[in-house]
């Protein structure tokens, strides 16, 4: 029997809906269900890791408060107790909190899909809500996006979600260097029609495949690969229902977004976009993104979300000379130099030490003559005299002994002790040895000549029993991975070395062959680089792999020219002529693989010359070849003199077989150093003359 008043239900619900509109809710996914931040996330949730000495969750909650959110549900799995303790000790649940309520939802979910289905069952969401990751950093005004979403919902209840995307150039440093999202959009309706990911570590496609009907049924479409997916979604309740009805949905984009778009003809649900052009929004979803967003925050691109805003009670940062953010009670030695860095309270820096482009936490003890370049040093870290740390991350409570060298992209976890005279190789990750305590000098037979090995510093966790290994580093893959179904892989904090080796080998073979083919056909450098970028994006290769392919192809081409294989048919070439021919005509390829011209430390240039030196090992007249290449790249100014000298002084260039091909180049290096001394002498004389005048 029909109700007496068909509109009674609607009339009854209307005040409730208005109340829901007034109370904006948000769900924060504090668990990423990934392993990109291991070894750190073995002991602490990602959202509590510090960025510019402030926990990531603080930036996310600040964004939600500015967006007018009143109720927040923080969904967490691993290390839930730590997050619970942090939140209950924070300002976010105090009487002055901008939130009406903030609740921690603990779960054992192993994917976003499980978490969303669990959230639906809890029945705590009452209307439209924000869905964000616990690593979002944004200064954007969300009100215009909310207004548009609500207006669309008024017209059509099938408009179930609005994704907030940030406009950025294709090469923006916060964008993924691996799998990158491509959104096909109807600009008139601001509706997402198609979603795809190009490139990626599993050899993803370099092409977007569109249904021809999209082209005929829409007056205009835009294919956008210049957008950063911030994982800020404005959702209707129907979003939770979609997750619950589709148990194969596991991830936000690859599963849910694709699934809803694919089923549009069947269910009619639409997903829309709101593109931010002049405000900051990004996710710290990988170690590379951590590095990029740290630079953005310290560079004030996310203002007012910068250190001197003092988001956490008790912070006292001030922005001063040399672009330094410094708290109270910092002790600097008379000859210490700090530039473009963040330094926390209670930290001391000894005489002769240099900190540049780095973050140093609270209560750190930096000894004398220490060099810290582009590194992230968290709280209570001790670095003793004479040590060097470059582009590494060192977690709380770690102690670095005297005269240690920590190379780029090394990750040292919590409360590790590194004995003096130790070298930590690039891309290593180090954790505590729970069984034997902490490593000391007696653990290493020759600690001043060897890197720390797994038996000394790697945790005895069964999933981490392999040796210190290469991992996803600050410049490596941050593709949006589907959650693994294998529990052992979820617990492991390293990728499969066989898979990585195969992928690197495939890229190297394809890229080297492509470059060599272009060199032999005298193709323009732009054409070769375009093809090379295609291979790089399809395999998620890093810049080191790109440089390696360029060097291998160049050296092969030089060998061919020396042997008489050249298009002009002019016969064999001398080593010097062959080197000049290749590097003069294609010097721009070298320039496009080195990005450190403005940096004091020429990491890319040193890496390029290391690869050249390695190629010379075992070749006939390898010592002559190295000399001519070093001189040519210096003369062409594609490698700076500082880059050449830093390469020469690098211990790696002297070790083993590498040292066997250095002999002839020593004279050239001596020339460079004497020329540098002469220039300095002339400058001193000029200054003296000016003073006399």
TrEMBL record:
Family classification: Belongs to the eIF-2B gamma/epsilon subunits family.
Keywords attached to this entry:
Cytoplasm, Initiation factor, Protein biosynthesis
Q: Which organism is it from?
A: Lepraria finkii
Main subcellular localisation: cytoplasm
Protein known as: Mannose-1-phosphate guanyltransferase
Gene3D superfamilies attached to this UniProt entry: 1.25.40.180, Hexapeptide repeat proteins (2.160.10.10), Spore Coat Polysaccharide Biosynthesis Protein SpsA, Chain A (3.90.550.10)
Question: Which CDD domains did the record assign?
Answer: eIF-2B_epsilon_N, LbH_eIF2B_epsilon, W2_eIF2B_epsilon
Q: Where is this region: Disordered?
A: 429-501, 674-693
Bias regions of kind Low complexity — which residues?
Answer: 449-478
Pfam families tied to this protein: LbH_EIF2B, NTP_transferase, W2
Report the domain of life of the source organism: Eukaryota
Oligomer status and interactors: Component of the translation initiation factor 2B (eIF2B) complex which is a heterodecamer of two sets of five different subunits: alpha, beta, gamma, delta and epsilon. Subunits alpha, beta and delta comprise a regulatory subcomplex and subunits epsilon and gamma comprise a catalytic subcomplex. Within the complex, the hexameric regulatory complex resides at the center, with the two heterodimeric catalytic subcomplexes bound on opposite sides.
